[in-house]
């Protein structure tokens, strides 16, 4: 700690320890006052590294104060010091003094200045203030000693004596100025020593109070969040342990709430961390106001808050969670931002008995993520099955990270067929995973985890580059197939997606008009204005854009004319029933007609029978794909089929 403080003060340029070096104890001067023309002691002088160091140690062990000379010549001074202990009084034993020792307090002064001041109006007087201890002798003088002067010596003990010189001409000292001056000088020295001892006593009390105050400050800092003033993780874990023990004795139930703000990162990224910090303070205040006095609230960090409560039962926990959600429904107004901020939160709950305090927070955290996946702004209670899911997901994430490094991903290509000619006009690149133990893993099992973890960004870029390079090879051999590549929600939101597509096209040499980027209807509808902006930029590169799984939500139909797209892929759920003669066939027909009216290419997904194909040809679909034609195959299979030129 001492070295840390020293480095901090050095960095500020206002303090320096002299002499430098690491020592078990430091006795640093804090303030220096000197007369004009005199050389002051440097602030930061370590008295424990002078000849007084061993004497200070003796003072610590004995509990007695010391007053000793230091230095020589013009820099000679009187140093008075005393040890400080934790208790209000000096411990009676040496062992007690060693165990309760905190530090020293003291002062250093130049007695010559005081003595000269006292004698200023008595030019015929002089005084000698002397210290002798073995072979060490130190003398402070003031005034000039004249021939015939009378001297008086007073022993102050501990090696100190005072000798005064003057002329006495009367039997009454009160009638003789010189004698009276001698008395006054003696009194002055007594007052000096008395004042010094009083100052040290007062300084000791002040120093002890300061130590206690700083200790309390440090304790508070170690247990509370510096931004909001709420309990931090250390204090929360301690409180969980206490409440859990109390709950066990009283047959009540501890409930831990894990609160995480929804989309808080967007506020930090767009409005700055200053606005974000002030918002967190206000969130902490609102949450606190929604609790009972017996509840505990703390902040783990970021936008994560923890609430502890003994409010009984599932109903009570649900009610408390709803109060917390309700407290944040009103818009927030924070300094540094002119508008209002709307914030919601997802809350996970763990309740009952756990082996360790950390387990309560872990389980509430798991439940909170379930709340996020359930649509946010809601509450989910922990279930043991959630922990199993977490373990499985974590193992999957580790495997996926390894798969990237080991090049375990590969692509297959599913043909896209023209309904009018029966010939292959394009392919869709489909991602597969060659797991070293499980074999080939289909995308439904790992794509969601790639999305959640963010690994979809590097994996998606690899897919795009691999597919475009393959498309460029086919184009180079005279087969200009349209290459369709799927973009996920995370990729569409990714700020670098436009640059990635531009870079891949340049790297692969594939003509932009041969690349089709497929985005699901759900992804497009999350933020329509942003989707329109991104799709416009993508089409500006010369590529085609397709809406995948069209019709599953019906929400995109109203926006279809506004969305900058080229292809509509009708979802397989409609195609499966296209020949049944019920409403599904009518819906497909509506979609096909809508595509014609908007001058869009229509593509039917999931064609599995000849009857479905015939119906789509009859209704005027442009393109189709599905197992009726081919599943996803190795690129060599596509190349061989291109060589034959056969129709499907």
List the helices and strands and how they pair.
Layout: H1 2-12, H2 53-62, E1 66-70, E2 77-85, H3 94-100, E3 101-109, H4 111-118, E4 126-133, E5 136-142, E6 150-157, E7 160-166, H5 177-223, H6 233-250, E8 254-261, H7 264-271, H8 273-289, E9 296-301, E10 304-309, H9 313-327, E11 345-352, H10 357-373, E12 379-381, H11 384-405, E13 409-418, E14 424-435, E15 439-441, H12 447-453, H13 456-476, E16 482-487, H14 489-493, H15 497-508, E17 515-520, H16 521-526, H17 528-539, E18 544-550, E19 567-570, H18 572-575, H19 583-597, E20 601-604, H20 610-619, E21 623-624, H21 635-644
Parallel strand pairs: 11-12, 14-16, 16-17, 17-18, 18-19, 19-20, 20-21
Antiparallel strand pairs: 1-2, 2-3, 4-5, 4-7, 6-7, 8-10, 8-11, 9-10, 13-14, 13-21, 14-15
